[in-house]
Amino acid sequence: MPRRPAPRTGPTLAWETLLPLGDAPTPLRDRLERSIRDAVHRGVVPPGSALPPSRVLAETLGVSRWVVTEAYGQLVAEGFLEAVVGSGTRVPHRPARGPDVAAGRAAAPLRAEYRRPRFDLGPGIPDLRHVPRARWAEAVRRALDALPDGELMVVDPLGHPLARTAVAEYLSRSRRAAVAPDDVVITHGATDAMAGVVAGLRAAGHRSILVEDPSWGRLREVAASAGLTPVPVPVDASGVEVDRLVEAPARTGARAALLTPAHQFPLGAALSPARREAVVRWAHDVDGVLIEDDYDAEFRYDRRPVAALQGLAPERVMLVGSLSKSLSQAFGLGWAVAPSSLRSRIGLVERARPSVLDQVALAHFITAGDLERHLRSARGRFRRRRAALLDALARELPGLPVTGIAAGMHAMLGLPPGVTARDVRHAASGLEVAVSDLARYRATAASAVGAGVGEALVLGYGNLSDALVDEAVARLAVAIRTAQDGRA
């Protein structure tokens, strides 16, 4: 960033901060976020420093202002930066945490660089207070005791047979998938599984992939990094709009689609039975491949979770799942399910597998019933927490629409006319409330936000303490009124 003179009055601006974006195959917004985090961690931008206005930084870096405002907004929502009316965006002052890393002295060991806001309404995070640490530790101990010496150095290219068998049996029971142990590949998680699948698709000649719009951006980015062009398909209250999905290949030649049939993120829809059948029929008609992201499918509160789409057409559907939403992404374990005929047809790329010890621990964790016991307990907590959240929203923000089926760990809140989610997010960050803007999950910056939905927030309740639900919503209501007053 070029050197600029500091203003005569007001806070010290971080004009001299170098923010290299690099040329990695990831969105500019994410690269800018990482660069800002790194500059703060290294002490290049010290606490109290104000970052350049978004327009100035965008001009300096040669990027759109949207890239900068989105990066700033996300970091503000996480509490990493703060936005104060009249003072811009700055690095907050935090209590001293030991030795100064920027001065070259050692940092305190095993300490996180930042904490999530106390009132955590950010989506995509499970209840970290209830991770079954003791049961997992016991599974690891059993794995160590049970593994023969020879297997400590053997790595099966598809995963350890014990893990593949346990996952196959679990998915057959819980998701009614049509799966045998030989159909399972053990992965480091859903993102890792997606990376192998899309690399295989690209090698098999695919050049584009249909994606829901809006949807979780990380898997779209993985597809783009592999050389596949994401083709957005709108989503409504019944899931992906199949008519639009069927039309898209005529324009793009796409014969692969990434879907979340059980619980769409972020709109919260379940793919209707008629559309499930239509999607499978389309895949047969075009000799296509469906990638089913089983996103938080275990959590349904008004009925049993719907069966996996994979059960309707195992020869066409690759089912991708992980422990990230049921336990935590820290476990780094997941799976992809596809018969060998489908794996060979798309040339599924072999990738490094999780450690043998972790895989066998997963097998013990599942076969001992610990995973399903944990999920039953989590469903009860999330059902009660969701009900409390809806009650608080009805009380504090009457008239605002809350959408999404009774499932998962998030809901969507529509905002009053004239109020932008970005303004609410900034105001909420000053009240220690983390929220997410629906626009963040659009497939393209210019795309419509599904099914006529206007400005909205995606509210997560997975990692929110039950005791803080009412206050979190009360503070959110203050943030919305603040944003409303600012627009008056």
The number of helical elements comes to 14
Q: Any idea what the CATH superfamily of the largest domain is called?
A: Type I PLP-dependent aspartate aminotransferase-like (Major domain)
Terminus-to-terminus distance = 36 Å
Architecture per CATH nomenclature, i.e. the level-2 architecture of the largest domain: 3-Layer(aba) Sandwich
C-alpha-based Rg, rounded: 23 Å
Structural domain count: 3
Quick synopsis:
The protein is of the alpha/beta class. The protein contains 14 helices and 16 strands.
What does this structure look like?
This protein has 488 residues and is of the alpha/beta class. The chain folds into 3 domains: 1-115, Winged helix-like DNA-binding domain superfamily/Winged helix DNA-binding domain (Arc Repressor Mutant, subunit A), CATH 1.10.10; 119-130 and 373-487, Aspartate Aminotransferase, domain 1, CATH 3.90.1150; 133-371, Aspartate Aminotransferase, domain 2. The protein contains 14 helices and 16 strands. It has helices spanning 28-41, 54-61, 65-77, 133-146, 161-174, 190-203, 217-225, 242-252, 273-285, 340-346, 356-367, 370-396, 421-429, 469-487; strands at residues 82-84, 88-90, 119-120, 184-187, 208-213, 229-236, 239-240, 256-259, 289-293, 317-322, 334-337, 402-403, 410-414, 433-434, 436-437, 456-460. The strands form 4 sheets. The chain has an 8-stranded mixed sheet, sandwiched between helices. A hairpin with a 3-residue loop joins strand 1 (82-84) and strand 2. Helix 4 (133-146) packs across helix 11 and helix 12 (370-396) packs across helix 14. This is PLP-dependent aminotransferase family protein. In the C-terminal section; belongs to the class-I pyridoxal-phosphate-dependent aminotransferase family.
